Automatic annotation (TrEMBL):
Protein biosynthesis found in the keyword field: no
The name this protein goes by in its record: Putative mitochondrial agmatinase-like protein
InterPro entries tied to this protein: Ureohydrolase, Ureohydrolase_dom_sf
Similarity comment: Belongs to the arginase family.
Biological process, per Gene Ontology: putrescine biosynthetic process from arginine, via agmatine
Amino acid sequence: MFAKFLSRVKAIPARSGDWANRLGPVALMGYSGGARSSDVKLLDNFYRSPRDCDMYAELTFHEPGPVECPPETVVFFPVVKCGNMLDGGVKHDAATRDDWYLATTEATTDLLEKGYIPISAGGDGSATLAMVEAYKRLFPTEEVVLIHFSARPSLETPEKPIRVLLEKDLLKGVIEVGNRCVSSYDRKVRKQHKVMYMDIQAIYAKGLFCIRDIRNDFPVFISIDADVLDPAFAPAVESPVPGGFTTRDLLHVMTSLRGPKVAGIDIHGYRPELDICRGDGLGLTQLALSKVLKESIVKAYVISTQTEEEGLERVRVMQRQGTISDNPYPDY
């Protein structure tokens, strides 16, 4: 049932030599395991929304094929469109949890082997397990730090993706950001596995800049559950918890993440049927997550172990190499 999607991924060529000393390109796939149509709704608005980002650069969308640097663009972040894992003609209920896991593992492995950064949009968060496991199978000697944005630690049951990764000892560490609904058992598991956490109350007590205390020298996997946002900004989640981040707070914290590179990104937790929509049918959660997805892609290109400026310097290398014009107004 995933044959069409997987054949599309296999058709993507390996990244060219132009990207040898750069981060990216990223490959974006729609994942709806556990949350029907969440990828369709999210990606539909994402591809139609403005392509400019907060760092005064633009995303460029590409069908599977060689990604070349357009000389007329000052700074660009290419996104290869892998499509939705489950086509509209296939019944969603026909795919089991194991089917989703195997297909996601295969697709992620293929993309990583070709030099792309895999990004999953939609679903219930189960893609995180498959994507991290695929990364560790390919690069067993590399340590990975998982940064998880969520209202809950998602550790309460043994089958939860992050709990499975911890039990299998596949992570160098886990950083929980934005938790505000933590049970006593969650605290026990966090202590047992030495999970670092920055609960929402601590973040606001110390100020948003406290996230800059995290210094990380390992590849980062970013997992963002929509419920980390306050229900005023993201009402379409299964179990909304008041008192969360504003959209701008989340974007600000994301810019402070550190690491030598991004191993992958999973943005999940969106339930389209629960969204509050404008007159034109555009949902509030859909709108917020499209922006979060855009800026997370930017993060995949500019992440740095030191400062945001150092990350941007990697982008400027393209200009120094002459691949991209230094003049933002080439007609003058």
